[in-house]
Write a structure and sequence with these properties.
Helix 1 packs across helix 2. With 77 residues, this protein is an all-alpha fold. It has one domain.
Amino acid sequence: MVWSPQSPDLNPIEQLWTCVKKKLGEYENHPLSIHELRKRIDIEWKKIPASVCQNLVDSMPRRVQAVLRAKGGYTKY
């Protein structure tokens, strides 16, 4: 299967970053420095439950099938 290595459909890490970005958006104030942003990212990253990571790994066969069925088009992932 030829597929872009940066495809979010086949890179579960993109889903984890989406979770982190969502949590960062829930802060009332914007970070005042890059260091503060990094600290917030570290905090939110560490809060991701192992079960979320496992679910993403477990979803890979479904993701691959969806990409194949879509022939490179849109998937729900």
